[in-house]
Amino acid sequence: MTDAAASAASAVGRRAGIFGAAVGVLAVGAAAGVAIERMTVGRVRRRAEAELDAMAEYGTLRGETHVVSAPDGVELYAEVDGVPDAPLTVVLCHGYTLNMDCWHFQRAELMGEYRLVLFDQRSHGRSGRGAPETSTIDQLGTDLYAVLQELVPDGPMVLVGHSMGGMTIMALADQHPELFGTRVVGVALMNTSSGKWATVTLGIPAAGARLVHRVAPGVLRTLGKRAGLVEAGRRAARDLVYVFTERYAFDSEVDPAIVRFTDRMISATPIDVIAEFFPAFETHDKLAALPVLGRVPTLVVGGEGDLMAPASHSEAIHEVVPDSELVVVPESGHLTPLEHPEVVNAALRGLLARAARACARRNGTGGGSRRSGSSGSAGSQARPPSQGGPKGPPGPGPQGTGRDTSG
Questions:
Q1: Which of 36, 141, 166, 328 has the fewest Cβ atoms surrounding its Cβ within 10 A?
Q2: Where in the sequence is the domain holding 171, given as residue range(s)?
Q3: Contact of 288 with 371, CB cutoff 8 Å
Q4: Strand, helix or coil for residue 45
Q5: Residue 177: band (very low, low, confident or very high) from pLDDT cuts 50, 70, 90
Q6: pTM recorded for the entire structure
Q7: Cβ contacts of residue 225 below 8 Å, gap of 6+?
Q8: How many domains does the chain have?
Q9: What CATH code is carried by the domain that includes residue 354?
């Protein structure tokens, strides 16, 4: 190689080295920028979350605390609230990955007039952990019976269940049908299913949904065995979890504080608990127990945009429960009690009024007109509960879709 060629090659090498170094510096700078941006976004998000938590009242209502021992020894955390000597007790059963605080709006609405009993399902909230093999709907029904024996030993009661809590009430009806029409004088089932949950598409194409239902139990079991690693991943992917919560919990614009409140409840549920309970929904089938609910006034609430327990499942329950009232709420996802509390509260008040009248007739003390379902034909736009069907105070906001429940 000539001296000139060597000199040129050396110059090219120096330029390449400089270029490479520059690229390296830029790459490091970009990576640092991304890291700084993530840290900044994380700090902003954490600050916003802290501000929302500080301002929001959600989850702050507390009552007299109790611990109920389930038959297998698991300690169930419960609270008794409201009017101690009220003639009617309302028992509220929460859903999957939530806790009793999800009933915030209903608790605030009813605590001035009724005695309220709330409890955290096993392995949820403040309750003790159950063995993995006890993560079944039937076990939850047994737990509910233990709570009723301990905290509602006498007097009439109305059972209210959301999602898995509704399934819990169905399991109780299957195990103790003698309670319905005697001690249990009313039932409300919200955003729940009596079975065939494996057919739910979860808002994705049918083929994809079938795959999810087929592989999800195994995947969740595997994740449950690596709970520590997965929990760290959940914390790192908070933004994704937040988006997931918004998509599946709600179908309308809601207060960001409510989304944050919901996200906090779900995030507090350990991944192994999520994994242990998931298979229970795939096998859940309580269709045969539903006619027992026809002995008492029954309210069925569904969300028109619910991807987890579609409104068609609420309609199926309504078809089987004689004289039940169906309210399908427009622009509502899976958490209708939190998303549209005014509609749910008005419907609950109507149910409680009908239950009280039924009790009065049974006791021979009068009690007004006979039970009736919501008027209006199938598919009609609903009127407030105070205008069509069972009477109760009207509530503002989106109204449910009426169905003929005259029987």
A1: 36
A2: 64-199+280-402
A3: no
A4: helix
A5: very high
A6: 0.74
A7: 272
A8: 1
A9: 3.40.50.1820
